[in-house]
């Protein structure tokens, strides 16, 4: 007997399915004829009175001509969106909901050396969570916060020698490095984990992990749903390496972005902006600013005025004295 998998117990699934079905004027009897699943069962599912498995859900979606990524988007949208929300607010809610990491990483934690005590407190909180539920996910989050606390405390001590105290050894970053190097494939979880932790690795380690992760996540590029994820991996890490003043490694990542096969105009334009950004950081201010402004002009030609304004703001910070050290962990495409 074939085993049923992944029971859906959230009644909103049925509500979303009912809306999509009735919007297309498809009757319950038509679905029964197409799938062999009784109309009484589908009716109970729509009213939240029956659970459903993926084995049954997939043919039901096919019967109403809805691809499963669209269905799960509609579900997530229905769960999070408010009629008063702007498109930008909805995108932000979706991004936070879909981030496959700890809640603490979606609440605006700021990466500054003076926050090392906050990172230590978060590590202690995560330790208690891991002790209560010793899962791999909780272990990796504990490793992240321990590595982050060590990094921030080291940075703070370097900048304030008079406040120097004993810095405990970094017991977190080696765990993250081992996991990312040994896992067979990188999905959205591994990409997000690396992007969040990239600053913890030395530039040489960072580039090694990035190259392996990019290779191990190639299959994601086949799907339009995830086609920008690899580029976000590259661009985010590029900004980390710029902040670390790791010019050779930043140039290597820029080369990966440039050589990446893509017909996405936003990706191509952000790569152009990145080229100018690196030029500015390496002292070629005039040439770099010109390159960045070319990218801004292209955004405007494409009608992406909102993007042009956003990257104009970044450019202002990049050209400031002293320059702002942006680390962009998430790009809003």
Question: Can you describe this structure?
Answer:
This protein has 333 residues and is mainly alpha-helical. Among the domains are: 7-98, lambda repressor-like DNA-binding domains (434 Repressor (Amino-terminal Domain)), CATH 1.10.260; 99-158, no CATH class. It contains 16 helices and 2 strands. It has helices at residues 11-23, 28-35, 39-46, 54-63, 68-80, 87-98, 116-132, 136-159, 173-182, 188-197, 203-216, 229-243, 247-259, 265-281, 285-301, 305-319, and strands at 7-8, 52-53. The protein has a two-stranded antiparallel sheet. Helix 15 (285-301) packs antiparallel against helix 16. The longest helix has 24 residues, at 136-159. The protein is globular, with a radius of gyration of 24 Å.
């Amino acid at each position: 007997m074939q085993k049923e998998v992944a029971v859906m117990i959230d009644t909103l699934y049925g509500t979303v399915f009912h809306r999509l079905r009735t919007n297309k004027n498809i009757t319950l009897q038509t679905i029964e004829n197409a799938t062999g699943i009784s109309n009484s069962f589908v009716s109970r599912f729509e009213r939240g009175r029956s659970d459903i498995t993926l084995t049954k859900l997939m043919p039901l979606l096919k019967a109403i001509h809805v691809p499963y990524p669209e269905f799960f988007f509609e579900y997530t949208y229905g769960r999070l969106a408010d009629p008063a929300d702007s498109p930008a607010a909805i995108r932000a809610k979706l991004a936070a909901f879909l981030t496959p990491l700890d809640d603490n990483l979606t609440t605006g934690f700021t990466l500054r050396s003076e926050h090392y005590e906050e990172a230590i407190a978060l590590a202690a909180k995560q330790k208690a969570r891991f002790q209560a539920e010793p899962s791999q996910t909780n272990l990796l989050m504990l490793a992240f916060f321990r590595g982050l606390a060590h990094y921030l405390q080291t940075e703070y001590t370097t900048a304030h020698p008079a406040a120097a105290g004993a810095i405990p050894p970094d017991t977190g970053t080696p765990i993250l490095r081992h996991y990312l190097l040994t896992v067979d494939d990188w999905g959205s979880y591994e990409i997000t984990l690396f992007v969040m932790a990239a600053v913890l690795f030395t530039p040489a380690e960072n580039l090694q992990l990035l190259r392996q992760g990019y290779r191990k996540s190639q299959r994601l590029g086949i799907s339009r749903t995830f086609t920008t994820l690899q580029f976000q991996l590259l661009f985010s890490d590029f900004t980390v390496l710029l902040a670390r003043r790791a010019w050779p490694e930043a140039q290597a990542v820029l080369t990966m972005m440039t050589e990446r096969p893509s017909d996405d105009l936003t990706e191509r334009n952000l790569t152009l902006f990145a080229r100018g950004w690196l030029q500015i950081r390496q002292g070629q201010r005039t040439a770099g600013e010109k390159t960045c402004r070319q990218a801004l002009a292209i955004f405007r030609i494409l009608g992406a005025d909102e993007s042009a304004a956003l990257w104009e703001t970044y450019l202002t910070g990049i050209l400031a004295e002293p320059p702002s050290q942006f680390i962009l962990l998430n790009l809003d495409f």
